[in-house]
Amino acid sequence: MATRPTTPASPKNAKIKSPSPGCPVFGCDVDSRTGALYCQICDDLVWDPTLEELRVRKIGTGTFSTNRKRKHDELFAESSKEDPRIISANTTVASCRASGLRGIYNAGATCYQNVVLQSFLHNPLLRNFYLSDGHQSSECSISHCLSCAMDDMFQDFYALESTNGYTAANILSGFWISEKKAFENLVTTKEQDAHEFFQFLAEELHERNGDGKRPQSGSEHTCNCIIHQTFYGKMQTTTTCQNCHNSTHAVQSFLDLSLGVDTLAQRRAKKTGQKLPALTLGDCLDEEYVKSDKCEYRCHKCASIQQARRHTSIKRLPNVLSIQLKRFEFKQGKHDRAASKIDNPVSFPLQLNMLPYTNRARNRDSRENLELERSCTYDLLSVVVHVGEIETGHYVSYCRVGDQWFKFNDHKVELARVSDVLGAQAYLLFYIIRSLA
Amino acid sequence: MNSATGRAGIIRARDDAGSMDKLAHSVLDDVLFNIVSDLLMKTHREEKTARATTAAIRVEKLASDASESSTPDSGPDVRIETDAAIYEDGKVLLKGNPLKTTTDILCPRCHLPRLLYPTDGKGARKPDPTIVYCKKHPFIEKPGCDIYGQSWVGPGPGRGKKKKDMDKKDGADGTPEQRPPNVLSFPSATCSKCKRCILVTRLNNHMGSCIGNSGRNASRAAAQRINGGGSQNEPTPPPSQKATPTPTSRAQSPRKRDASDDDDDDSETSHKKKKSKHSQTKRVIIKNTKPPLKKDKIKSSSLSQEQKADYDVPSPKVLNKTKSKAESPIKKLKVTKPTIASPMSKNGRDMDGESESSGTLSSPPASRH
């Protein structure tokens, strides 16, 4: 051990000595990274529940702090207040077979809907909302309510033993009957954009569960509905006049982050000479939320049109961050504009730190930063992938359940490896916040 | 600083390498060691907790069997000892290492043995036909099949079915042995508007023509209006176009498509109905039904920890009043567990909650490095 160099990556084992020396009552090793306890008497790692709780808390929040501990205890005290007899009298355990892993049948060019529905189904926040009777279809009077259809779907996925595909007939008819002007083009029998369907579904579910107000784009709309609590964040655009250095702020809420791929890819292609240069998600995020751009702007102070710098950053991060990579763009061709697909690979991480893209990134304080960074850490939850050409393509999705990834291709569910997921040509990415605390 | 390798001892620099080289090799070797050790630790933890839970379930079952007289709500007042655990005063104490004392794994929910190997595909083993296993099986990894080992019959000829295809299908329905049980056919669903049964692959097209104003019936109706053909049909304003296809257009079009739709769906209609009835009686409810999201209103990055709990509750429970009246003592025991559990009860009791939650998202972030 002494001859081995110690690097930051080196694992360290701390030895806990028994209280009275020479008496091998409780000799243990603790792994420095995971906090796992190795008992020398058992000659094995032990996972004692009491110590496990401490270990998990330390790793999850980075501290054993009493403040958190109290919260933690209250949390458990509250749940134990619920009488187990009431629970046992009203519930039985769902079959062990009902895992929520089912495909959804393609009802004729509806794979763009299926991928979005699967990502909703495996979103723990939405799942818990619907499974705890957040929207009861038996008490809803709206006919062809999409939220009721979602409720039914969650029940079917998590309560029935069926492993056959699911027929999303109610979702589909709710979709056809819905009269949303903004999404009229979406309602056809043809293949459509999964991102538009995601927006449609989010708005529709917000209207069914929320305050009933239509979310207006560009406004700072806040609502307590499940969709807003899950997906909506806020971003802030700061425009600084180059003449008088007066700056104005505009805040607007967002459902997802749309990241341009095209211009970045073209710039990269010119620079490196590659035909399809590879990008990273970080590149795309830097472009939108770190760099600032120039624009013309009517300054109130100068009372004239001035050059200004505009910088956009995220003011409030959502619990589930949805990111769209703009792979479909209208390009000016020789004769007319035609939709085309950008095939550049964009690599994305399993774990995403969003702190650099928030408006808190600038005021640096290293101690506070560590805490902040922890609260801005996201884990990849699901990926929607578009395969093939723009007209004849197909959508598949990958979702994570626990640590296992699954591939959903309409009615077919398969096991997927992490490398399959990370190698996919992502179109929509859903990241979930690591700790809600 | 002279060692050429790290803790794993796999990536080794040459003996005559410079110190920077050696350092780089040992860093890489340490990183490799960490990856392998994390994987091993995670598997070890899952396996050991599952075995510990199994030992606890076994001994609790014996204890509850031994004292039929006592009320099921309180822990039976007996002392039971197995090879793996001791039951005393309502507590379970493990004896020795559960990895050695317990060889199989019981499902913490249904208390049936878990099937440990997939039944088909990669790593498959034949299950013991005499044992009733828990219904949660290991997922199957086999080309052409899904995780349950299912595959689907081809959706058939793309456009309207031909006579001979229908004959074939009828034959298959008459003698189900011709098709392996895990090969499924596409089901059909009821259109919410016209209540007809439509094969699922045609559902979107059907709704387009039935609810929406696309599809060929709609275009025919439109053409008719333009030509002034349908005498009893006044030119209708757009909203009513969204209604059912007009009777005239139906009468004029030969009903070939509809007929075939109806016919091939008959076989599945009854099944589907049964299924939907089934789904009405059951409701899944998360055990932790306290208002999940009210507390955090607008602050999202600083959410209260309450939410974490909701996040952590993985085991959905099915609401079913009729069933729950016939409670078995085992079920009762399970529910009362959290109340009796004390820090004294070593690895046993609290584990089912934990091992279950590790199946969902709530597994500690540490295991996801």
TrEMBL record, chain A:
One GO molecular-function entry: cysteine-type deubiquitinase activity
Signal peptide: none
PROSITE patterns: USP_2 (PS00973), USP_3 (PS50235)
A Pfam family hit: UCH
Gene Ontology cellular-component terms listed: cytosol; nucleus
InterPro entries: Papain-like_cys_pep_sf, Peptidase_C19, Peptidase_C19_UCH, USP, USP_CS
Organism superkingdom: Eukaryota
GO BP terms in the entry: protein deubiquitination
Ranges for domain USP: 102-434
PANTHER family noted in UniProt: UBIQUITIN CARBOXYL-TERMINAL HYDROLASE
Protein name as catalogued: Predicted protein
Organism of provenance: Hypocrea jecorina (strain QM6a)
Organism classification: Eukaryota, Fungi, Dikarya, Ascomycota, Pezizomycotina
TrEMBL record, chain B:
Composition bias type Polar residues, residue spans: 241-252, 356-369
Annotated region (Disordered), positions in chain: 150-185, 221-369
Biased segments, Basic residues type: 271-285
Domain of life: Eukaryota
Protein name, UniProt field: Transcriptional activator
Organism listed in the record: Hypocrea jecorina (strain ATCC 56765 / BCRC 32924 / NRRL 11460 / Rut C-30) (Trichoderma reesei)
